[in-house]
User: What shape does this take?
Amino acid sequence: MADGPQGADEAPADAQIRLGGLAEQIAFNLRLAQEASFQAFARRTGHVSLRPGRFAILVIIGNNPGISQTMLGAAAGRDKSTLTPALADLEKRGLIQRRRVADDRRSYAISLTPAGEAVLRELSIHAATHDRQLDELVGAESKDAFLAILRRIIAGLADGNAA
Assistant: This one.
């Protein structure tokens, strides 16, 4: 327990946090919604250490056996600095395998292992249930419009399109 007065950056546990302009910012609310969704997904699956980003990677690999790391990164919206550790983790867990491409020794062809296919099947069931919960929250009549807005944000901000 500190002897001096409470610091300016500390607040009592029961204090209302003032967010300022953040409360009305789309980016901040997107991040909070993403985090809430990710936490709910982890609770649902029981795979707290196998986060939704890893699930997305498994889905893309499962739908594109032999995909290159470059193509996977582009499809998953991840750069090399975040994709490489994720792939190393999935490989360590025995869920994926990376094989050097014969005609390009710098590239890997990535595929699911049988264990990865089993985990993907299990997680896909949870993901479908999770998505139905999100559908209920967004509303069936609003889902298409909401997805269109999200896709417009992605397209408008991807690859430096934003000014």
About this structure: The chain has a mean pLDDT of 87. The first strand starts at residue 67 and ends at 68. The radius of gyration is 20 Å.
